[in-house]
Design goal:
It is a single chain. Strand 1 and strand 2 (about 15-20) form a beta hairpin. This protein is α+β, with helices and mostly antiparallel strands. The chain has helices at about 80-110, 115-125, 125-145, 155-165, 175-185, 190-200, 205-220, 225-235, 240-260, 270-280, 290-305, 310-315, 320, 335-350, 355-365, 370-385, and strands at about 1-5, 15-20, 25-30, 40, 45, 50, 70.
Length: about 375
């Protein structure tokens, strides 16, 4: 043991003694009035014996010795090799297990059924499973179109879907909506369109089913549906909502575009398209904003008709859009405003061509990134045209 004694103040001081032992360090605060600094070597305190700190007084009859405080020896930290399992190995094992679980359940959930199998399962399944199978069928049909496969079902598959749609009970209205849209999108037109036209003519058809039927007819691309869709735009009875009328407008354009791909100027030579234009001119003033604005845009973009030009001009103003209110006094969302403004720019570009250049240059600094992008695209198109 080694003992160190230190004097803090020659007039009023305390002595600190440090005893270094095998089991730690003992600190003793000593008496008052001592002077000098001493250091003693050895393994024992002369008064207390081996391995014990001394409690004698140092010079004079000053204060009593203070209590000794023991300081435990410092323990060494863990090495990197000791910490490696808990810092790296265990988290890595957890991640591997999670990935394996995800792959396992993903493989179980993967649906490899074809169209025929899905239709068969819809026929045989219960209420909940029928809805799941119908959703899987819709996803499969959309995926086939995305990759460029033939989107149409065979005649036998179309007939089975027709039978399913006709016999679906009223309690499974959502399933019938799925089937009707699927028939319009991918059913054989010569079989599906007559069924959809007959369905649209029924009275007291539920609103959601009517909207699905209108959408299905628009997706069919069949000319036989045009007049029926134009008639549905005028319907204002309780069985028709504005969304169904909007779907009818979009459906008519889809049918005409399918027979005139990439060449909208050919509409001028299309007698049925001229009927559509005359019909839609009055719809520019429709009390429902969505119908009025959509018609103005479609007339300008697809037919080059300026009946709704003033409406498109107004839509270019953010102040005008900010003041718009719809159902339940709801204003337009930012995304809706951007969509309408981009459509207005595109419609006015078709009507005015190079005369719109100044407006497009101004919109290049618009607050909306989407509007700036549309303006830039139309300016590039103008440069190519000139």
């Amino acid at each position: 043991m080694k003992q160190f004694t230190r004097l803090c103040n020659p007039f009023n001081c305390k002595i600190f003694r440090f005893y270094f032992r095998a089991d730690g360090v003992t600190v003793v605060t000593g008496v008052d009035g001592d002077s000098g600094l001493t250091s003693s070597h050895g393994g024992t305190d002369p008064d207390k014996g081996e391995n014990e700190p001394s409690t004698d007084r140092q010079g004079g009859s000053g204060g009593a010795l203070a209590d000794a405080v023991s300081v435990p020896p410092r323990k060494g930290g863990k090495t990197f090799l000791e910490l490696f399992p808990q810092l790296f190995l265990f988290p890595l094992l957890i991640v591997i297990v999670m990935v394996l679980v995800w792959v396992f359940f993903g493989a179980i959930a993967q649906d490899n059924r074809g169209v025929t199998e899905l239709i068969r399962d819809i026929q045989a399944g219960g209420g909940h499973s029928r809805m799941q199978d119908a959703k899987a069928l819709a996803d499969l049909l959309v995926a086939k179109q995305v990759v460029g496969e033939d989107p149409y079902l065979g005649a036998a598959e179309t007939r089975r879907l027709l039978q399913l749609a006709e016999n679906t009970p009223s309690g499974e209205g959502q399933l019938k909506v799925f089937l009707v849209v699927a028939l319009g999108r991918c059913g054989q037109p010569q079989l599906a369109v007559p069924f959809l036209l007959e369905l649209l003519s029924r009275k007291n058809l539920p609103r959601e089913l009517r909207q699905a039927t209108v959408r299905g007819l628009g997706l069919s691309g069949d000319r036989r549906a045009v007049l029926a869709l134009l008639g549905d735009v005028d319907r204002t009875d309780v069985s028709t909502n504005w969304q169904s009328r909007w779907e009818a407008v979009a459906g008519v354009v889809n049918i005409l575009l399918r027979e005139n791909p990439g060449e909208e100027q050919s509409f001028k030579r299309d007698p049925q398209a001229r009927v559509v234009v005359e019909k839609w001119k009055s719809m520019v003033n429709d009390p429902r904003r969505e119908i009025s604005w959509t018609t103005a845009f479609r007339l300008a973009k697809h037919f080059g008709d300026d009946s709704g030009e003033a409406i498109l001009e107004n839509i270019l103003s953010w102040d005008f859009l900010d003041k718009q209110r719809g159902d339940n006094n709801r204003g337009l969302t930012v995304q809706e405003k951007e969509l309408w403004m981009c459509q207005a720019l595109e419609g006015l570009h078709r009507l005015r061509g190079a005369e719109l250049r100044n407006v497009l240059v101004e919109k290049q600094t618009d607050r909306s990134l989407a509007v700036r992008g549309k303006a830039l695209m139309l300016l590039e198109r103008l440069d190519k045209e000139t």
